[in-house]
Design a protein that fits this description.
Blueprint: E1 3-7, H1 10-13, H2 17-29, E2 34-39, E3 59-64, E4 73-77, E5 85-90, E6 93-99, H3 100-111, H4 129-146
Parallel strand pairs: 1-2
Antiparallel strand pairs: 2-3, 3-4, 5-6
C-alpha cells in the first residue's frame, strides 16, 4: 500500500484552478492510498474533511487510511498547542511517527528563516485577540533571554 503526504500550500486553499486540480488529485488518492494532509496555514479554505467534522482550529492534520475510507483521523491544533507526532502509514508499519514540531524546528534552523522574519510586525493573517496577547508575551520573554 502506498502513502501520500501532502503539505498544503496557499494555492491548495484558495479558490481557483490550482485548488480544483489539488481536489481532483485528492479524490484519486482517497480510498486507493493512505493520505496524510498537513495544513499549517491559517488562511484560506480548508479542504473538505467529511466526517468527523473538525472543530475550529488554526492548523489541521488529517489521515485517511485507504482501508478505512471514508473515515479519517484528524488533529485540530491551535497556535498555542504543541504540534503532534503523526502516524505515517508505511508499508508494513502502519504508524511510523512523524514529529511535526521536530521537523519544523529543523527546517527553521537549517533555512535560517529567523533572519528574514520581522517578529515585531503583526502577522500577515491576524491572530485572535487572546492568541495575539499570548504571542506578544512570548516574544517579550524570548527578547529578554537574548539580552
Amino acid at each position: 500500500m502506498l502513502a501520500a503526504i501532502e503539505l498544503l500550500s496557499p494555492s491548495n486553499k484558495e479558490a481557483g484552478e490550482h485548488r480544483n486540480e489539488y481536489l481532483r488529485k485528492r479524490r484519486e488518492y482517497l480510498g486507493s492510498v493512505d493520505l496524510l494532509e498537513i495544513d499549517l496555514l491559517r488562511a484560506g479554505d480548508r479542504v473538505p474533511t467529511g466526517r468527523p467534522h473538525h472543530p475550529p482550529c488554526d492548523y489541521l492534520m488529517t489521515l485517511c487510511r485507504a482501508e478505512a475510507f471514508p473515515q479519517i483521523e484528524l488533529w485540530a491544533v491551535g497556535v498555542r498547542d504543541t504540534l503532534p507526532t503523526l502516524p505515517v502509514p508505511i508499508q508494513g508499519h502502519p504508524n511510523c511517527p512523524l514529529d511535526l514540531r521536530q521537523c519544523l524546528d529543523r527546517v527553521y534552523d537549517d533555512s535560517r528563516a529567523a533572519l528574514g522574519i520581522d517578529y515585531e510586525a503583526p502577522p500577515e493573517y491576524p491572530l485572535h485577540r487572546a492568541d495575539a496577547e499570548w504571542a506578544a508575551e512570548l516574544l517579550k520573554k524570548h527578547a529578554r533571554k537574548r539580552k
